[in-house]
Amino acid sequence: MRYLPISQELFVHNRNKFVKELKPSSIAIFHSNDVMPTNADGTMAFRQNNDLFYLSGVDQEESILVVFPDAKDQRMKEVLFVRETNDHILTWEGYKLTKQQATEVSGIKTVFWTHEFNSVLNTLMAEAEHVYLNSNEHLRAVVEVETRDARFIKWVQERYPLHKYERSAPIMHYLRAIKSELEIAMIKQACNITEKGFRRVLDFVKPGVMEYEIEAEIFHEFIRNRSRGPAYGSIIASGTNACILHYVDNNRECKDGDLILMDFGAEYGNYASDLSRTIPVNGKFSPRQREVYDAVLRVMKASIQMLVPGNTLDQYHAFVGTLMENELIGLGLLNENDVKNQDPDKPLYKKYFMHGTSHHLGLDVHDVANKYRPFEEGMVFTCEPGIYIWDEGIGIRLENDILVTKNGPVDLMKDIPLEADDIERLMQK
Questions:
Q1: What is the pLDDT of residue 84?
Q2: Among this protein's residues, is 366 annotated catalytic?
Q3: Active-site option among 31, 173, 176, 397
Q4: Fewest 10 Å CB contacts: which of 98, 188, 300, 308?
Q5: How far is CA 21 from the centre of its chain?
Q6: Mind listing the pLDDT tens digit for each residue in 385-420?
């Protein structure tokens, strides 16, 4: 892996939290993601299952984690299965974890080869009553390809039909929402790498560059700083492209007088960062662009102050909606009387600000969590208000990553230029 070794303390701590949530006599099983095919004999780059990584730190395909805290044999309370390597695999694919290395990464002492899983499981299932199985239960997930977890669910329920089956996802959503100090350090490192990418862009952008050239400059900084690359599909959207929320073609020429909305973030050690900035192609905002930019920035600053323990996403978004209404009225985009008489279920500001302001951030860029859970210390949220005006060719979004603490919000991206004056000064050096 490109990232530096992560202390096994993180994964031992995570497993200890997980087992406290299990029913008595329970076994929990987590599988790695598949290596996904493309065409012919091609494959996509491997990306580990985040739940398995969270609990083990193992970043390798064909891996399985079994957690069985009430196992009669002390050695079987935590069991890791990794792919057995050989000279052929070493020659064609490179190094795989040895059993000793798997222990060093995870803190799990009992390690078998993956091909031994069925026989070991058969012994453990004789002792277990409840079986916790993992699945992707993210509210936005669209799963059309059968995953390794899904195949295993069908197999194990057919082979062991009399056990009581439980869902691991609610537990994982609960645990992963609160980040430990080690996790926060990983996210902060991802943010630091993202900062390097943004500062490089400020020196590079000028009229005539292509959106994909900007993307290449960002990726250069990511990879040279031990990131695998972007945490999600990068958006480099100039002109009216900035009004397309998930524009990822990145193939247009950046023209004098246009703005560029950039939404990108480095991944580090599987942890995501998420940044949005909007800059002028020629290094100078027009009066109207500056007016809209400052409106978005005011909403962002006020919204960040709401990311404190005890608030909820519903309360938070209602507050941000009121802020945005006032700004849009000030910009001449909404009429004050129309806003007073609007259908509360169809607020008028949604014409110009149609997405949510914040989401959880962690191993997933849209990290798993319960949307109704009040904010707690240790949660990490994005804050990303925006205003999109198709008729004027203006799309502006600003976004930083915020840690919730008992002493107030902590901006993990506070060192990344944000003020319009700073953007202009750095671009005109």
A1: 92
A2: yes
A3: 397
A4: 98
A5: 24
A6: 999 999 999 999 999 999 999 999 999 999 999 999
Model pLDDT for residues 9-33, shown as the tens digit of each residue: 999 999 999 999 999 999 999 999 9
- 215 in active site: no
| Selection from 300, 294, 318, 331 nearest residue 420 by Cα | 294
* Rounded CA separation 427/201 (Å): 9
DSSP 254-274: P-TT-EEEEEE-EEETTEE--
Nearest to 55 by CA among 11, 114, 6: 11
Residues of the chain with pLDDT > 90, as a percent, come to 95
Cα 424 to Cα 418: distance, rounded to the nearest angstrom: 10
Q: Do 398 and 357 touch, CB atoms closer than 8 A?
A: no
Q: Is 314 a catalytic residue?
A: no
Residue 404 to residues 79, 175, 184, 270, 360: CA-CA distances in angstroms? 34, 15, 11, 21, 11
| Three-class SS state of 80 | strand
Estimate the crossing angle of helix 8-19 against helix 99-106, to 10 degrees: 70
pLDDT tens, 90-114? Answer: 888 889 999 999 999 999 999 999 9
Let me know if 41 is a catalytic residue.
yes
Beta strands in 200-339 (DSSP E): 229-230, 235-238, 259-264, 266-268, 271-272, 275-280
399 carries an active-site annotation: yes
CA-atom Rg of the chain in angstroms: 24
**Residue 165 annotated in active site:** no
| Given the residues 2, 159, 167, 355, the one annotated as active site | 355
28: which 2 tokens?
């929990």
